[in-house]
Design a protein that fits this description.
Elements (H helix, E strand, L loop, with lengths): L1 E2 L1 H9 L6 E2 H8 L3 H13 L3 E13 L1 H9 L2 H11 L7 E2 H7 L5 H10 L5 E4 L2 E4 L9 H10 L7 H9 L3 E13 L1 H9 L2 E2 L8 H6 L26 H15 L3 E2 L5 E3 H4 L31 H13 L14 H4 L2 E3 L4 H8 L11 E10 L11 E11 L4 H13 L6 E5 L5 E10 L6 E10 L1 H7 L4 E8 H9 L14 H6 L5
Parallel strand pairs: 1-8, 9-12
Antiparallel strand pairs: 2-7, 3-7, 4-6, 5-6, 10-11, 12-13, 13-17, 14-15, 15-16, 16-17
Helix pairs in contact: 1-3, 2-3, 4-8, 5-7, 8-9, 12-19, 14-18
């Protein structure tokens, strides 16, 4: 009998008595896993080997599990703090023990629920009693977490199941295939199998020389395992942006467009931002060197904006009484927020005069010289929006947010008063992260001030907002670091697998 070289190598490596995995075969024959898998399937078709499929579960630590490896299980920390305060002799106030254990938030409930379960002691009447015979060093769950962190197996199924229930360990299922020689395979191997040279691909050289006419080609096995394909797909941020656009258009909004590089006049001055505001220094904005300034601005609008800055608007406003320079207003920079588009549209500069009621939005990039961290980058997507109508109130604004975020199944919103130079009243929005359960800021909003609207020629109320698209995506998908989706540290596996549900 003759077989291709790779098949013969695998046949000789497979045992007649024990099941051998593809990984073990790959190590023995020194071939690529795909080559070994294809050869093994071919042997199966020839009846020389049989295959067995089993489902295996690979345990790995969740982020919470990794944290406990470093800091200790909450119940162990509670027990050790109780011992330090003599709770093995007399009951100690629970609050003092919790504070000493440095536990807060959800960690308190986790510690209390597992403290008695593991026999560390009792909690009764707001006091903690510690069991002097308990052995935290022998905690099986803590030992299992440490073993997994070190890449070692955990043999105790009950402990592993407990860690999975606590969301400290997750199990990744995979199908494992093992091979074993059949009786026919043993017979053929004992009789002697010769190498049959076969080629697995057609090369330009074979075509040029005519060698292909005499070559024996290996058969393709379409049932063999193949590498997981990673085709191109729409980036998850773009998916989220398109979904936001669909939602806002469905709510009756029209989309705004405008330049990424704009004059400081549109970015800040029209928003009643004083020219000596710290955010307008070169430390916080990306100014252009060439060209450094815009050529022209609408003179009548410039005069009204300057007057608002110097004198205010109406009898109850004094303005800023600070320096104002039109040359500074002409300087070009990357927009620090997309509210510059709102100023252009409200002034009539972009699409002509607008009469209430009106609804506009944009989902575009903004640029800020921020410190990089889990929730900040130098560029981000901002969901800009505003509504022009008569007699608008904060309740209208809150209702709009409730309706918008409900389209993404986000219902736990919090509102916090804040200060903005261009809105009054103003408030920030917070949403609860689905994984960490923490409240994170997701936007800023308010009612535009008369000092902004009067120079723009708007004689109606305008409620407006700037929401962070990346923060919305965090609440939808549960990722925790903006750098997972932006820049050089992106989580490719996350980008390949996650989808924004419609």
């Amino acid at each position: 009998m003759k077989l291709p070289r790779q098949q013969l190598a695998v046949l000789e490596a497979v045992s007649a008595d024990e099941w051998t995995t593809v990984d073990a075969l790959t190590a023995q024959v020194d071939e690529k896993p795909a080559t070994v898998t294809g050869a093994a399937f071919a042997l199966e078709e020839e009846g020389l080997a049989e295959v067995r499929e089993t489902t295996e579960q690979d345990p790995s630590l969740t982020e919470e599990g990794e944290t406990y490896v470093e800091t200790g299980l909450p119940e162990v920390r509670l027990y050790e703090a109780a011992l330090d305060r003599g709770a093995d002799e007399d009951p100690v106030e629970m609050g003092a023990v919790i504070e000493a254990a440095d536990l807060d938030g959800p960690l308190v409930d986790i510690a209390l629920s597992n403290f008695a379960r593991k026999g560390y002691g009792e909690i009764e009447g707001g006091k903690v009693t510690a069991n002097p015979d308990a052995d935290p060093d022998g905690d099986e769950e803590a030992a299992a977490l440490a073993a997994l962190a070190a890449g070692k197996p955990v043999d105790d199924e009950a402990v592993l199941e407990s860690l999975v229930r606590r969301d400290l360990v997750e199990l990744d299922e995979r199908t494992a295939r093992s091979r074993r020689l059949t009786d026919e395979g043993v017979t053929e191997l004992m009789a002697g199998v010769e190498v049959r040279e076969a080629v697995d691909r057609l090369t330009p050289q074979m075509l040029a020389t005519g060698e292909w006419r005499d070559a024996e080609f290996a058969e393709y096995n379409v049932a063999a395992d193949a590498a997981t394909p990673n085709p191109g797909k729409v980036h998850v941020l773009r998916q989220a942006a398109e979904r936001v656009k669909e939602v806002l258009v469905g709510m009756g909004f029209e989309e705004m467009e405008g330049p990424h590089v704009d004059a400081d006049f549109w970015i800040n001055d029209c928003l009643f931002m004083p020219q000596d505001h710290p955010a307008r220094t070169h430390w916080d904005r990306f100014a252009l060197e060439t060209p450094a300034k815009i050529d022209e601005l609408p003179n009548d609008l410039v005069e009204r904006v300057e007057r608002a800055h110097r004198e205010g608007v109406g009898p109850d406003s004094n303005g800023y009484n600070s320096p104002w320079d039109v040359e500074f207003a002409k300087e070009l920079a990357l927009r620090g927020h997309t509210t510059s588009l709102s100023a252009r549209y409200l002034s009539g500069e972009q699409v002509g005069d607008l009469e209430p009621p009106q609804r506009y939005f944009s989902v575009e990039k903004a640029y800020r010289n921020d410190t990089l961290d889990a929730t900040h980058l130098l560029e981000f997507f901002q969901i800009e929006g505003w509504v022009m109508a008569e007699d608008l109130t904060v309740r209208d604004l809150m209702g709009t947010f409730t309706e918008f975020y409900s389209r993404f199944d986000i219902t736990d919103l919090r509102f916090k008063p804040t200060y903005n130079p261009y809105t009054e009243p103003s408030f920030e929005l917070f949403g609860r992260h689905p994984e960490t359960n923490e409240l994170i800021e997701i936007g800023n909003s308010g009612i535009f001030r008369p000092e902004m609207l009067d120079p723009l020629g708007v004689d109606a109320d305008v409620m407006a907002w700037g929401l962070a698209l990346e923060r919305l995506l965090m609440l939808i998908t549960g990722f925790e670091d903006i750098r997972d989706v932006h820049g050089t540290l992106t989580d490719l596996e996350f980008l390949r697998s996650v989808e924004v549900e419609y």
